[in-house]
Amino acid sequence: MNTTYFIEFTYLAASILFILGLKGMSHPESAKRGMHLAEFGMLLAIIGTLLHREIVSYEWIIAGLVIGGGVGAAMAYWVPMTAMPQRTALSHAFGAFAAALVGISEYYRHGAELGQLKMTALSFEVMLGALTTTGSLIAFAKLQGLVRGTPMTFKGQNVFNMTLLAVTLGLFVYLLFVPTSATAFYTMMGLAFVFGVMLVIPIGAADMPVVMSLLNSYAGLAAAATGFAISNNVLIIAGTLDGFSGFILSILMCRAMNRSMTNVLFGAFGSETMAAAGDGTEGVMREVSPEDVAVQLAYARQVVFVPGYGLATAQAQYAVRELANTLEDRGVSVKYAIHPVAGRMPGHMNVLLAEANVPYSALYELEQINPEFPQTDVAVVIGANDVVNPDARDNPQSPIAGMPILEVDRARSVVVLKRGKGKGFSGLENPLFYKPVTGMLYGDAKDSLVRLTQAVQQA
Ligand code: NAP
User: Fold this and answer.
1) Confidence of residue 296 (pLDDT cuts 50, 70, 90)
2) 123 vs 106: CA distance, rounded Å
């Protein structure tokens, strides 16, 4: 088999593995296998690429592999699960910048000779690559707290952004007819970099996961365009898969929050004025002790755990499993209620609970568990806030009105584990904490769960 055939074969095998990997990742049980298949696919794609005859020297490539591999390994090893969204944002920025650089170098080398088709792909790649780079960097900075997480807005912002986009797209079209105009090419690139910043600054940190998944989709489409520009099949297939899966994921996340994509992108959700609206909290928060809660849990028939972002920050997944085991040993039926946007990334809770070997059969989706709350003796909310906020259901004025919630307030008793009076990611007050049915158990979620387990064992 000659090298060209072998390269195409590795690309085909890699593409099939990417598709199987994505399919595997659609269910928690097969997600790990899916990830491994995709990793193997990527390895094949790299091997195939390294065999290309056009490569004149390997020094720069090896240097890139060593630096990139080192940075990737360090990030995988040291970045905590809770910082996964900002880590992903950085990866998107790198990927998109790489796509933009490939496009720039292709234009620099062959600009004048490029046909209209290649020029379309190349301009598209550079435009999307550039805006995704800066957009992802701003998303990273917001999520990491390096810049203010609340929306940054100014008068006439939407008009300004639309004009910027129109001029960038105008240059894109112009270049299809006059590909030799380097000024138009580099101006379009510069404006796309600026547009990336402008696109993300008015969006609040709470909506960053949606934005990132959208940027992921842009990075994928930029990679696919790179594939067209340099005639590389695996880039076209992998980029398209990435592009569309990212887009579908953004839509699914918007649906789970009952928001439209336009509202996420242009609604400046989470701004101070919105956070002040729909307060709806009267009464007092009732503090409870671990011993009181332990008695309730030990003599309950059904307990539902509701994990949220706080479970992730406290790394309390093993502690909750421990408590569940103790309760199950006493004959209590234990279930876990999973909200699609609990935590900070899709599937966040599934991943954490899977790490602690919580059986999938014990995980219940929103639609399955909500009808069960009235028959539940104790709903234990572990570091969740927005996803159990009854205002979303009861208060049409609330900024999160209509967002589907886990209706824990319909349980016979609710215990909320959190450290203090901290708000959820939306910055809104939560009337659940003031309801007579609710008891607040303050402290780090992991510590509280350990104390509860000990107290149940003694009950
Ligand atoms: P949340 O609303 O952000 O609330 C987390 C709560 O955990 C806080 O109120 C905090 O209160 C508590 N907490 C933090 N650290 C803790 C610790 N160590 N121990 C105990 N408690 C701790 O979380 P959520 O209910 O999971 O909601 C997720 C939010 O992210 C939603 O607004 C959702 O729309 C948004 N979002 C998620 C996704 C996604 O893909 N998952 C995508 C887009 C948006 P204290 O500070 O008082 O402890």
Assistant:
1) very high
2) 10
